[in-house]
Amino acid sequence: MNADAKKIALRMIPYGIYVLTADDGKTVAAATVNWVTQTSFAPPLVAVAIKADSHAYAVVKNAGTFALNMLGKDGKGAAFTFFKPAEAADGRIGGQPYTKGATGAPLLTAAPAAVECRVKQIVAEGDHHTVIAEVVEAHLPKPPTGRPDAAILEMKDLGDNVFYGG
Amino acid sequence: MNADAKKIALRMIPYGIYVLTADDGKTVAAATVNWVTQTSFAPPLVAVAIKADSHAYAVVKNAGTFALNMLGKDGKGAAFTFFKPAEAADGRIGGQPYTKGATGAPLLTAAPAAVECRVKQIVAEGDHHTVIAEVVEAHLPKPPTGRPDAAILEMKDLGDNVFYGG
Predict the structure, then answer these.
(1) B71: distance to nearest CA of chain A, Å?
(2) Do B45 and A125 touch (CB under 8 A)?
(3) Contact B39, A48 (CB under 8 A)
(4) For B6-59, how does the pLDDT look when each residue is reduced to its tens digit (9 = 90+)?
(5) Distance between CA atoms of residues A47 and B95, nearest Å
(6) How many Å lie between the alpha carbon of B83 and the closest alpha carbon of chain A?
(7) What is the DSSP letter of A144?
(8) Contact B156, A150 (CB under 8 A)
(9) pLDDT confidence tier of residue A87, bands split at 50, 70 and 90
(10) Nearest residue in chain A measured CA to CA from B139
């Protein structure tokens, strides 16, 4: 396989930027992720690939639930904050205030939207494992004014040479 | 769950547009898809959710291989062509010329890039099933000049009210 062609072809896939959050009762985790897609309408399912050796993955597995917090165009700071492990204390994680959702998953106050998900299956293949989960709750504190997919922070908004994929 | 919040939050996920192709030796299938994400670097894996009652899904299952043909900004016609079932004859499908890739999967001549994939696992949950597959070959006949993720045809390029998700 031509490694360069593989890298560039895979980098053509456009990505939004999300903060994945989970709370297993012992620890709160928050991590920036981008490998996300819907996978079913009925029931509403999403797939998210999470680094298999990460703290966030361990907490999601334990909790069985998580939230995907959609970041807005002003969410670049939050995106970079949660590239590294973040500590939770006093209703904040990585400095960001949050509340608890219906599933117990943290909802970032700054996020314009979030979906809460219940894990259905995990595909343990590769360096990230793919979590297939049902959307069981949704929050839209700041509804987008135009197309919803024009309102989310995107990988290409993070910098000319920022990629996660390839 | 607030159905409207769920719809809009899920529609915040940005999508590229791909023509999924497969050839099981009996039939050639081509279908426009958008529920795609990378899921691992090593090995390189992707997830694609395919309508479970579709012809394309049956052919992918039989073949065990498929290609994701990335469409360019000029690929709107192809995107709409493969929203409906397409017939293959004389080296064309839906009017689009194609060649056979290393895995046997059809490669659309008009696509600026394509990855050929081998199915690893299928998650049979929901109205679309999620195929986890390894990228085993890549083609880049028309390398993008800027960011690769700025060169792909996106859902939002198809029309103000065109969505597949929510």
Answers:
(1) 10
(2) yes
(3) no
(4) 999 999 999 999 999 999 999 999 999 999 999 999 999 999 999 999 999 999
(5) 33
(6) 17
(7) -
(8) yes
(9) confident
(10) A5
Centroid of chain to Cα B13 = 16
Residues of B in contact with A20 (CB under 8 A): none
Q: ipTM of the predicted structure? A: 0.98
Task: Verify whether the Cβ–Cβ distance B1 to A137 is below 8 Å.
Answer: yes
CA pair distance B84, B86, nearest whole angstrom: 6
User: What are the backbone angles phi and psi of residue A101, rounded to the nearest 5°?
Assistant: -80, 180
* DSSP character at residue B152: B
* Distance separating alpha carbons of residues A98 and B59, to the nearest angstrom: 46
Note whether B2 contacts A44, CB cutoff 8 Å. no
Q: What integer pLDDT is reported at residue B87 of this predicted model?
A: 84
From the CA of B91, how many Å to the nearest CA of chain A? Answer: 24
Write out the two tokens for A38. 């819907």
pLDDT digits 0-9 by tens, B148-164: 999 999 999 999 999 99
* A106 Cα to chain B: minimum distance (Å): 16
Nearest CA in chain A to B33: A39
- Residue among A89, A70, A113, A131 at smallest CA distance from B5: A113
C-alpha–C-alpha distance, residues B17 and B33, integer Å: 6
**Residue among A62, A56, A59 nearest A19 (CA):** A56
A39 contacts in chain B (CB < 8 Å): 35, 47, 49, 123, 125-126, 128, 130
* A40 chain-B contacts, CB cut-off 8 A: 49, 125-128
The β-bridge partners of B131 are B48, B122
In 10 A of CB A3, how many CB atoms?
10
